[in-house]
Every structure is written in structure tokens, then in C-alpha cells.
Amino acid sequence: MILVVDDDKAVRLSLKLLLNRNGYETVMAASPAEAHEIVRSSRPDMILLDMNFSRATSGDEGLILLKQIKIFHPDVPVILMTAWGSIPLAVKGIHAGAFDFITKPWDNKMLLDRIATALEMNQPDNAEADSGFDRSFIIGKSPALLNVLNTVERIAKTDASVLIMGENGTGKELIAEAIHRNSNRRNNPMVKVNLGGISRSLFESEMFGHKKGAFTGAVADREGRFSVADKGTIFLDEIGELDLNSQVKLLRVLQEHTFEMLGDSSPKKVDVRVICATNADLARMVTERTFREDLFYRINLITVVLPPLRERVEDIPLLVDHIVASFCAKQSLDLPEVTPEAMDYLKTLPYPGNIRELKNLVERTLLVSDKPVLTAMDFKAQYVETPSAGHIFSTDKNLGDVERDSIEAALGKSGGNVSRAASLLGISRQALYRRMEKYGIKI
Description:
Blueprint: E1 2-5, H1 9-21, E2 26-29, H2 32-41, E3 46-50, H3 60-72, E4 78-82, H4 87-95, E5 100-103, H5 108-121, H6 143-155, E6 162-165, H7 172-181, E7 190-194, H8 203-208, E8 209-210, E9 222-223, H9 225-228, E10 233-237, H10 244-256, E11 258-259, E12 268-269, E13 273-278, H11 282-287, H12 293-299, E14 302-305, H13 316-331, E15 337-338, H14 340-346, H15 354-369, E16 373-374, H16 376-382, H17 399-413, H18 418-425, H19 429-439
Parallel strand pairs: 1-2, 1-3, 3-4, 4-5, 6-13, 6-14, 7-10, 10-13, 15-16
Antiparallel strand pairs: 8-9, 11-12
């Protein structure tokens, strides 16, 4: 049963017809008082809740009712209905425990998709152990990693937006690929976009496409990333790098599922699942007003936090074996033995660059040593300890602080050599330059 709470009779009738036509049982409430009586005596499967009622426009009644609903039924998903002007109010509702919000007037297909996602996410997890979940390319069996994979398995078949957070080198892109590979969209495109590598001036052209002649140099029509990803998944990496102006343009696509190509005023519909990733502290950026609060709550319906390698050291032997086997096959090298003592040594390192740093160390040792047996001394000879090793991430520091400290420490260790610092951090030189600009770090 879906409870619809709205003081507008036309809205209630429209939703009743739409929901009944799609097989949902509905109950209508015209006021908070009516809704309160219903939730006291029964348990809806979900609730569509307007934020403003006839007696006021502040939204306080909607927020109060939401809190009352959560007292009686804390697990029932609530989707808020709001006009554009009250989106900040809807964000407050998300803070108070709402599942999602839609804007009026709504798109019927989008609303039905949101309802289906909310109901599916609220189902008890009764999947069998052998569910056919494809975790290829993700190596490890530590509790920290398995907890992440359990979440990924549960959310993959929904269309819920996902925000993947974690330090550099933890494998955020692999998790995004696993979500797509196990989703109902797996046979359609997955488009990956590194937002940190797109300049502000090219954002619209890259993401939405352009028509021939839209600007100087536009010699032909070009399809944007969202068009290419239609019916599939779009992965927006480094979402924290996006400037405020581009955030507004992205928000419109996520809210309305429409966009306009440069040079073309007709809106185009798009059906995509959005997965974002960042190593930035977006919550702090919202507080500092460098990241839009409404966009933040739009992209993180589900948040997946990847553990750093130092919190899953039991996975290091498995990762080392995989790296050695893959690299030797690619380089046509004989497969060496890695001694237990060497594995023990590798498990003691702090890895500020996480899996990427481990991969670089192992591959460098394979190339330089060229021995049938690799000992702890072989890895020690190739390991360069950075001062950032002493700045291990904790709850006292956010991801941005850790990243800034790591960059400054690596630049200090390398004597200001950007290429060497990038190698120590396990990232590309271009990525390091972008982060130096982001944090105002100068050589």
C-alpha cells in the first residue's frame, strides 16, 4: 500500500490513477492530521509526502509529519514532493530521514522508477549465499571488503544513485564497474567520465554534446557522454572537482533526466543510472558552500565507503599474488616465488597510496630484481618511505586533509620533482598537477 499525502485534490487524483494503473494499492490523505491517523493504525509500504499544506507554506507541517511517521514506522521509505522553490526544504527532509524527493510537476516514468527503487531497497535481504554476484577483478576476502561487496550486491539491481568514497588507490572505479556489471543495465553502455580532467569551458560540450556551429571549432555534431550512456550507467569520477556552475547544470540532468545540446534548444530525454566517486569530503564542502547541498543529496542515495589497504591487510597476499601473476604474464616473465617473510613485510607498510602504491612497488621489484625468489630484502630495496606514512587516515582527519598532507610530503621527499612525487603517490603526473592546483600547492 502506498500512502499519498497532499492537500491538492487534483494531485491526489492524478497519483491515484497513475499508481493504480501500475498495480499499486493506494490510500489518500488530504492533511497531516489524516495521514497521522493512517500511520497510527496501519503500516504503508511507502509514502509520497507533500511538504506544504493549505494552512502554511513554510514546510514545517511536512517536516513534522515526516518525523512523526519515522517514530511509528522508521523503516518505511518516504519520498517527498516539492516545487523547485522548496528544494532546500526537501534537503532538510533528507536530513530527517526521507528516502528521496521529486519535484513538481513530475515525470511519470521517473516517479515510478523512484517508487520501484524505494520498495525494492526496503525488501528484507533474503538472497541465497550463491546469488551469482560477479565480483571479478575485485581481489580480497577481508571483512571490511566483504561488507562493501554485500552492499554492492544488494543495490546493484536497483537504479539508486550511488556515491563511492575512499582514498586514492582504493579501487573506486572497480566498485562502480561491479555495480554496473551486476545491474539490469549490464548489456548497455557504462560511460566513465573523469570530471577532474574536464575544464569548465568544455563541460557542457563533453557532457551534453553540441551541434555543428554551436561555437568556434564545432565543425560537426558531437554526442555527449549522457547521450552515449542512455539506458546504461554513467560513472562520474572525482565529482568533488566540479565547479559550482557545472554543478547546477549536472543537477538539472539528475533531477529531470533531460538536457540540451549546445546549439540546440530542444530538450532531450535520457535514462541513466548515476554512480559518482570522490576522495573529497563532500559534507565539509557543502558546509563551506563549495558543493551544492541539493546535488550532494541527489547523488548519494546510497553511499559506499571503501576501506584503505591498511584496514584490510589480510588481503595483501592475495593482491600480491594477483599483481605478480598479471604482470609476469603481460611482460612474458618467469613467475617468481614471493617468500612468506616478504609477504609479512609487505603487510607492515602503511600504503598512503593504497592498492595503487602496492601495485607499483611489486611491479618495480619484479623488474629490478629479476630473481626466481623474492625476499623481504628485495621489496625493502625498492620501497621508498614517504613522510605521509606517518599521517595515516583517521576519523580526526577528512580525506581532503589526508590528500593534501600526502601530496606535500611526497613533493618534499622528491625535492619538488613532480614526476617522482606522482610515482610515490601512485597517481599520474596530470592528476597530481590537478590536485596541486586544487589545494593551492606550489613548488
